[in-house]
């Protein structure tokens, strides 16, 4: 049982009680009312509301320093906060498990049992995050999303600390502090929050053209995901795998979401930022609680050692993807997130990741970004959580930990051993270095001269940025132009927006022209760099539609008023629930709304003023009597809801008076609005299509409603 929103709710069913959950339960405290309230040293407290005061009988006088109970309460409170993460401060997490597929290609490349042993269920914790904003910033800002996975394997913890974008802004870790200073709020006024739309960011990326590819991803729809559940995840860096024949492979890790890759529209994203800043956090919780646990397939791309230099790009450069036409994806396992946290701070806030945490069979490459990351993460956790951070319940492995590391602040282990060094006279008994099964570094031959430099192929920055733009669909390209135009418009220093619009011409002439026109930048007079014309699979989000279209976990608003048709609502709600969607009835007030039949009503979950179209994926307005239709059309909120949902390309359906209301609201935009037929079998696909058997009513990305048959 866990407590959400003040009520006790049942834990999600069908949840494998993994080793990590069992481990956490050892320190999970159920609230037992009969225990009574106590101090931290266990003494019962009879009054937790009033300071101990001097009183002469006529009323209370000054408070007494002696009040150890009040002092403890206030001192504990004074120290509740820890430093927030220097980046990725805002996040949400969930528990789950990973299972390797039986007979996958993984065992050709690695002996890491977590990736090859299909009989295992490995517990995981995943933390999603934004990068720029503070811990209290909004979820739906335009930003890269962190996708950090901790696998509690039987051989130790493996942390795959990735993002929802496959490349990075910089090539060498040495640039990270400069990059983060530039992206974060400006130092003189701490503006802006949760945005890269400011002079310093665009100044830096303009002067650091290796960022061009990643900036394109961030300005595209990938920067504004609909849900954490609808994002890809990428390890980004090049790691290595070692197989049992001692052969080494370079590897990139990919997480492919079962639900496909979907984004908000930009207008939606920033409205939700104000309307519901916890939108993504709540979405994750809502899906898991509604038995729609998010799932991802783990896929790998591998390159044999001997082929390292056979590509026009450097495979150790984190600003480059490995096009799947050149290096195919192998699907090797599945991750499911099926359990929300019991308490945010000890779990989601105290979880701590390190790229250097790998398990036997997985290793590093000379990727200079990864090399620096391996140094940075452990260090930052010491500042955030203290040197014994790996003893915290959420961080400790499920396999035994035994070594001679000792002491430090907040040591919670009591080691029963008279020696704390190796070698020692006792020789036998733990902990001694493993004769077998220990972590084994690949014997890589390295000869060289000490220098600060980058490999020659690291100097090329625009080929793949162009590949990215070429591979987008037309609406995605339009969104990319809008993204760049919004951000550069927020830079008020002409040096910044003029130089960035010049840089864009190295990527794409049309993109540079469109953006420069919008923001008053430098209009290119000729093509800056010939377009190589190449495209690749896996850039456009349309390449990642779900294998089976589904409306599972999608939020559907049913707008009603008094006099609605009860059958229409009941039937639609039942059909939606049966297909796993989450319907909400929204009316003029929360509470009972009377139907056209008089007696039979429906309980509205929310009232019109408390919700907005942006919080839902689709809209349905049932039939009702004439007064009902008139009331809906007289409501500015309802009319705005429909128009806004239409503008955001949402699926919209109505029957009878509902249809008339939709026509009324959209008359200005689409005078000849046409409706497709649908019935209670309606299925709202993730494309925003309501279909039933033969017809579908579809709002397309070009803001036109079409009727598509079949
Ligand atoms: Fe990082 C946090 C992802 C480059 C230094 N990073 C952090 C988190 C994610 C990433 C998802 C949040 C983890 C969590 O939820 O707790 N970082 C990346 C990716 C990178 C990357 C995909 C490029 C491939 N990072 C990177 C570099 C450095 C850092 C080059 C330093 C040289 N990152 C950190 C950090 C953070 C962090 C300062 C802040 C909080 C933390 O580590 O635990 O150490």
Automatic annotation (TrEMBL):
It catalyses: 2 H2O2 = O2 + 2 H2O. The active site is at residues 88, 163. GO terms for cellular component: cytosol. The keyword Ion transport does not apply. GO terms for molecular function: catalase activity; heme binding; metal ion binding. It comes from the Eukaryota. Pfam families: Catalase, Catalase-rel, Catalase_C. The keyword Metal-binding applies. Its cofactor is heme. Residues 38-430 form the Catalase core domain. Its EC number is 1.11.1.6. Keywords: Heme, Hydrogen peroxide, Iron, Metal-binding, Oxidoreductase, Peroxidase. One of its GO terms (biological process) is response to oxidative stress. Heme binds at residue 377. Catalyzes the degradation of hydrogen peroxide (H(2)O(2)) generated by peroxisomal oxidases to water and oxygen, thereby protecting cells from the toxic effects of hydrogen peroxide. Belongs to the catalase family. This is Catalase. The lineage of its organism: Eukaryota, Fungi, Dikarya, Basidiomycota, Agaricomycotina.
């Amino acid at each position: 049982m866990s407590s959400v929103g003040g009520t006790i709710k049942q834990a999600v069913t069908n949840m494998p009680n993994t080793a990590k959950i069992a481990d956490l339960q050892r320190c999970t405290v159920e609230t037992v009312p009969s225990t009574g309230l106590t101090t931290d040293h266990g003494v019962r407290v009879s009054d937790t509301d009033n300071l101990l005061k001097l009183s002469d009988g006529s009323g209370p006088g000054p408070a007494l320093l002696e009040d150890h109970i009040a002092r403890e309460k206030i001192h504990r409170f004074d120290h509740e906060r820890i430093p927030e993460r220097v980046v990725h401060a805002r996040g949400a997490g969930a528990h789950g498990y990973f299972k390797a597929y039986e007979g996958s290609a993984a065992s050709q490349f690695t002996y890491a049992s977590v990736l090859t042993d299909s009989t295992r269920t490995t517990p995981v914790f995943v933390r999603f995050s934004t990068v720029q904003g503070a811990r209290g910033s909004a979820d739906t800002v335009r930003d890269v999303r962190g996708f950090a996975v901790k696998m509690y394997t039987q051989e130790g913890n493996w942390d795959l600390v990735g993002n929802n974008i496959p490349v990075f802004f910089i090539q060498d870790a040495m640039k990270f502090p400069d990059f983060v200073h530039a992206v974060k709020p400006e130092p003189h006024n701490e503006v802006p929050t949760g945005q890269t739309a400011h002079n310093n960011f665009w100044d830096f990326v303009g002067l650091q053209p290796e960022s061009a590819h990643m900036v394109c991803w961030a300005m595209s729809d990938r920067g504004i995901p609909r849900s954490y559940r609808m994002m890809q995840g990428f390890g980004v860096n090049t790691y290595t795998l070692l197989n049992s024949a001692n052969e080494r492979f370079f590897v990139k890790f990919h997480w492919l979401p079962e639900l496909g890759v979907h984004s908000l529209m930009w207008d939606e994203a920033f409205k939700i930022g104000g309307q519901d800043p916890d939108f993504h956090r709540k979405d994750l919780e809502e899906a898991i609680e509604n038995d729609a646990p998010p799932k991802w397939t783990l896929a790998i791309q591998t390159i044999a050692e001997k082929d390292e230099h056979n590509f026009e790009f450097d495979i150790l450069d984190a600003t480059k993807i490995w096009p799947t036409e050149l290096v195919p994806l192998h699907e090797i396992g599945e991750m499911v997130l099926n359990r929300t946290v019991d308490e945010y701070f000890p779990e989601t806030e105290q979880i701590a990741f390190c790229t250097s945490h790998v398990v036997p069979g997985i290793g590093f490459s000379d990727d200079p970004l990864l090399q620096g990351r391996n140094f940075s993460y452990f260090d930052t956790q010491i500042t955030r959580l203290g040197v014994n951070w790996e003893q915290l319940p959420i961080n400790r492995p499920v396999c035994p930990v035994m070594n001679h590391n000792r002491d430090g602040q907040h040591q919670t282990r009591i080691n029963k051993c008279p020696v704390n060094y190796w070698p020692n006279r006792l020789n036998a008994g733990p902990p001694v270095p493993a004769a077998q099964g220990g972590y084994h570094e690949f014997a890589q031959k390295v000869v060289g001269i000490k220098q600060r430099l980058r490999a020659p192929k690291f100097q090329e920055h625009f080929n793949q940025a162009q590949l990215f733009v070429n591979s987008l669909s037309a609406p995605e390209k339009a969104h990319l132009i809008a993204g760049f135009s919004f951000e550069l418009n927020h830079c008020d220093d002409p040096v910044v927006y003029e130089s960035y619009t010049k840089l864009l011409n190295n990527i794409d002439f049309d993109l540079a022209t469109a953006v420069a026109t919008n923001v008053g930048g430098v209009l290119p007079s000729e093509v800056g760099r010939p377009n190589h014309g190449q495209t690749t699979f896996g850039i456009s989000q349309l390449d990642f539609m779900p294998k089976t279209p589904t409306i599972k976990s999608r939020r559907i608003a049913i707008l009603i008023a008094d006099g609605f048709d009860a059958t229409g609502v009941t039937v639609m709600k039942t059909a939606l629930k049966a297909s796993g969607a989450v319907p909400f009835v929204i009316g003029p007030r929360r509470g009972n709304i009377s139907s056209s039949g008089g007696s039979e009503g429906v309980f509205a979950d929310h009232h019109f003023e408390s919700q907005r179209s942006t919080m839902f994926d689709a809209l349905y307005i049932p039939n009702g009597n004439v007064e009902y239709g008139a009331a809906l059309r007289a409501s500015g909120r309802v009319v705005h809801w429909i128009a806004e949902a239409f503008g955001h390309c949402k699926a919209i359906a109505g029957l009878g008076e509902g249809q008339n209301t939709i026509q009324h609201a959209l008359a200005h935009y689409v005078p000849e609005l046409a409706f497709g037929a649908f019935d209670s079998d309606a299925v709202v696909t993730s494309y925003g299509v309501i279909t039933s058997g033969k017809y579908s009513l579809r709002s397309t990305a070009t803001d036109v409603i079409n009727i598509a048959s079949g």
